[in-house]
């Protein structure tokens, strides 16, 4: 990367880069960041810190994730990068035929139909058992404490909470949704910034997970409650689906971009979209970040990558194209040749045969974790299993009901997944974890953050603060209000349908920790578009 000590980005210098040496946790909530750092100070490692932070985020940022969501992790330990896929499958009792017979021609966003097996608790337990140092019940203690005794809402959280409740009041009708309203709008009132919120059911569920190392959630009392709730309201998920689930250790995938290896979790995650776009651009020279050529080529590359992703990404065994073919040098060059001077409407190619939280942690021993978990679409399905605090995800909404589509709904299958952790290495050295949350913005954020770092030499905070763009569909592109006006005008002249917006929340929320391989010094950045915080010592 060019001049990694570069100062802040001149257009959006809202925070300064943070340095540390013995431990660092970067995430979107100060209380969660501190919870993770406390684990390192107790003698735990970056893995313990990641688990504590993730569990805490289910309490202090329920607008984006919950106990009933999924998770993915990239873990650097003992000079090797490991991948964990803890995304759950569709229930065995669901099928395209059953839904169509019931008059459902598109999987709904809310309710029990899109609920898939939650994987997040399994990720915490698996990471703790395999790579952690502290007992998981101790690691979950900060989250249990905040759920039981309450925590004050931060400003951005309160804003998103209010929007979520107001939206659900309009769209959620039925007895099955009452538990959600009882939990997040108790007595009909939406909590405000600075007010305390707590959930004893959430606290007790976390305690049970810690005491039984997750068994109670997948094969015990909590599994029974999820099963009973689903049966009562006509859902498909059953205790047998929970009991059969195990998270999967996977080999991370990567492309080399200008001397750095950029790593993602393989499909069913959409990290391959970011890698395909980088693969198209790795031979291009970008002389300035605020240049229309930079924006144009980035946008065109991500459009082409998303077109392929929408067509092919699903559970690996169901993909009609291999990851290797999609990330090949030849295919990257083939797609790059489609990028011209004018904006295009993207279509998928054919390779030759052959509402999320993100956190980064690092400790003084060189362990580093890139971790992400989500319920999807903010609060998820709109369902909370009564008395448990378990807010269920709605990941099944991404399945296709076209039986010929790669991502067609099938019993026991995992769907195209939006949440993606990222990691950067150079040679045999870890540079560190990075991520940008926010649905289909995530690969776009990964592309921009990586290029800000490698092509333009921005430090972690500046790389996050820099103005962002988001491709929406066809030729439609959102530009953050801080993008220079001359860039917006030049992109319009190239045929892009440009829309400027002050809604910075649309552009994702990221965290970065880079480690100097010679000194071990940690440099962190946290998202200035939300309540981000770095805990460090």
TrEMBL record:
Question: What is the originating organism of this protein?
Answer: Salipaludibacillus neizhouensis
Q: Where is the signal peptide?
A: none
Gene Ontology molecular function, alphabetical: transferase activity
Task: State a single Pfam family of this protein.
Answer: G_glu_transpept
Its keywords, alphabetically, are: Transferase
Name of the protein: Gamma-glutamyltransferase
Top-level taxon of origin: Bacteria
């Amino acid at each position: 990367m060019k001049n990694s000590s570069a100062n802040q980005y001149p257009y959006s210098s809202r925070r300064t880069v943070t340095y540390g040496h013995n431990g660092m946790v970067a995430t979107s909530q100060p209380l969660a960041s501190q919870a993770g750092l406390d684990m390192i100070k107790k003698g735990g490692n970056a893995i313990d810190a990641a688990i504590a932070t993730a569990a805490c985020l289910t309490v202090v940022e329920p607008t984006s994730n919950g106990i009933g969501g999924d998770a993915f992790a990239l873990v650097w330990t003992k000079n090797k990068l490991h991948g964990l896929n803890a995304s759950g499958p569709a229930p065995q009792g669901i099928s395209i035929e059953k839904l169509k017979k019931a008059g459902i021609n598109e999987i709904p966003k809310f309710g029990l139909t899109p609920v898939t097996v939650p994987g997040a608790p399994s990720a915490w337990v698996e990471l703790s058992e395999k790579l952690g140092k502290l007992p998981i019940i101790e690691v979950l203690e900060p989250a249990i404490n905040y759920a039981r005794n309450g925590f004050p809402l931060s400003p951005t959280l309160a804003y998103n909470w209010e929007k979520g409740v107001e939206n659900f009041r309009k769209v959620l009708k039925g007895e099955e949704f009452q538990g959600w309203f009882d939990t997040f709008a108790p007595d009909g009132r939406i909590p405000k910034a600075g007010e305390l919120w707590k959930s004893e059911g959430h606290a007790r569920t976390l305690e049970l997970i810690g005491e039984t190392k997750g068994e109670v959630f997948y094969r015990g009392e909590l599994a029974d409650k999820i099963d009973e709730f689903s049966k009562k309201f006509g859902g498909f998920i059953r205790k047998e689906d929970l009991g059969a689930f195990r998270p999967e250790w996977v080999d991370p995938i990567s492309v080399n971009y200008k001397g750095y290896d950029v790593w993602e979790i393989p499909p069913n995650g959409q990290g391959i979209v970011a890698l395909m776009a980088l693969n198209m651009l790795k031979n291009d020279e970008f002389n300035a970040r605020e240049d229309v050529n930079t924006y144009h080529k980035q946008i065109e590359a991500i459009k082409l990558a998303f077109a392929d992703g929408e067509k092919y990404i699903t559970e690996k065994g169901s993909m009609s194209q291999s990851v290797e073919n999609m990330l090949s040098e030849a295919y990257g060059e083939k797609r790059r040749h489609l990028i011209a001077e004018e904006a295009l409407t993207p279509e998928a190619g054919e390779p030759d045969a052959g509402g999320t939280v993100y956190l980064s942690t690092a400790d003084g021993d060189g362990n580093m974790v890139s971790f992400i978990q989500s319920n999807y679409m903010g609060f998820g399905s709109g369902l909370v299993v009564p008395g448990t605090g378990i807010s269920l995800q709605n990941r099944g909404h991404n399945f296709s009901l076209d039986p010929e589509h790669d991502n067609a709904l099938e019993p026991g299958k995992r769907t195209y997944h939006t949440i993606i952790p990222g990691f950067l290495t150079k040679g045999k050295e870890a540079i560190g974890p990075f991520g940008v949350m926010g649905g289909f913005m995530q690969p776009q954020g990964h592309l921009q953050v990586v290029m800000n770092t490698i092509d333009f030499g921005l430090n972690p905070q500046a790389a996050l603060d820099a103005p962002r763009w988001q491709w929406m569909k066809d030729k439609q592109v959102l530009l953050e209000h801080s993008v220079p006006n001359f860039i917006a005008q030049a992109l319009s002249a190239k045929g892009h349908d440009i829309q400027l917006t002050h809604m910075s929340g649309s552009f994702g929320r990221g965290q970065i920790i880079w480690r100097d391989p010679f000194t071990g010094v940690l440099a962190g950045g946290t998202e200035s578009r939300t309540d981000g915080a770095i805990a460090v010592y």
